[in-house]
């Protein structure tokens, strides 16, 4: 079974806090959270240096990767234990997730291609740096992911940088979850966050993502 957590528009602090909360609490079924942004925000990779970030305000992610500017993108968080997923094969992880996204986008009329090799481009901005299994549309990178492993489980965060209308966004999210479940040979179950989930995320938000000590730690 793949648990699909359907969520709403939130700010960067809460989006990052909820992802980490789900990772901390994870103990059984794989989880896919699909979510949105209530304004424009910037998140940066865990190891990025704050003084190299152009944005005035930003939130440091729990995962690695580079700077991502958010607003109209559809974002996702995938969590699984080694019982259900090969958590040590990064390329295969991205390929499976991005393949599910690619198929969902095609059904929404967006025909992206998957990169077969890394390019020599180097930049602090995620969409300007191309890696194997990233998705590209009309010469622009539209999908990339970053991950972290701990205690025999993996968390993957990523965004789909295609501005879809509301109805198309809803359809894409449903198809993405359905395709990923099929790729894992799992059934799909829809859930939402409850009061306890939000309370735990708020604690993490205060300790980390709304804290300058965290966001400027490197």
Shape, per Cα inertia axes: globular
Main β-sheet: number of strands, strand sense, barrel status?
8 strands, mixed
| Class from helix and strand fractions | alpha/beta
Q: Regions with pLDDT < 50 over 5+ consecutive residues?
A: none
**What's the helical proportion of residues?**
25-40%
Q: What is the distance, rounded to the nearest whole angstrom, between the alpha carbons of the first and last residues?
A: 38 Å
Radius of gyration: 16 Å
User: How many individual helices?
Assistant: 5
Write down the overall mean pLDDT: 94
Top CATH class: Alpha Beta
CATH T-level fold name: BirA Bifunctional Protein, domain 2
Tally of structural domains = 1
Write out the strand line-up for the largest beta sheet, numbering strands in chain order: 7-8-9-10-6-2-1-11
Quick rundown:
The protein is built from 5 helices and 11 strands. The chain has helices at residues 12-25, 90-107, 166-183, 195-209, 212-215, and strands at 2-10, 31-37, 41-44, 59-60, 68-70, 74-81, 113-114, 135-137, 140-150, 153-160, 188-191.
């Amino acid at each position: 079974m793949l648990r699909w957590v359907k969520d709403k528009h939130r700010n960067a602090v809460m989006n990052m806090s909820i992802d980490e909360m789900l990772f901390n609490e994870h103990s059984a079924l794989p989880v896919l959270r699909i979510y949105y942004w209530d304004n424009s925000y910037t998140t940066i990779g865990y190891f990025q240096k704050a003084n190299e970030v152009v944005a005035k305000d930003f939130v440091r992610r729990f995962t690695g990767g580079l700077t991502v500017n958010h607003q109209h993108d559809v974002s996702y968080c995938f969590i699984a234990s080694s019982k259900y997923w090969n958590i040590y094969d990064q390329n295969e992880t991205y390929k499976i997730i991005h393949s599910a996204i690619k198929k969902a986008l095609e059904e929404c009329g967006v025909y992206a291609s998957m990169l077969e090799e890394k390019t020599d481009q180097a930049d602090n901005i995620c969409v300007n740096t191309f890696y194997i299994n990233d998705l590209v549309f009309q010469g622009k990178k539209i999908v990339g992911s970053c991950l972290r492993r701990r205690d025999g489980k993996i968390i993957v965060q990523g965004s789909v940088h295609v501005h879809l209308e509301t109805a198309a966004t809803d359809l894409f999210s449903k198809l993405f979850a359905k395709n990923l479940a099929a790729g894992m040979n799992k059934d799909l179950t829809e859930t939402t966050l409850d009061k306890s989930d939000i309370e735990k995320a708020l604690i993490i938000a205060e300790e980390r993502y709304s804290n300058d000590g965290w966001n400027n730690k490197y």
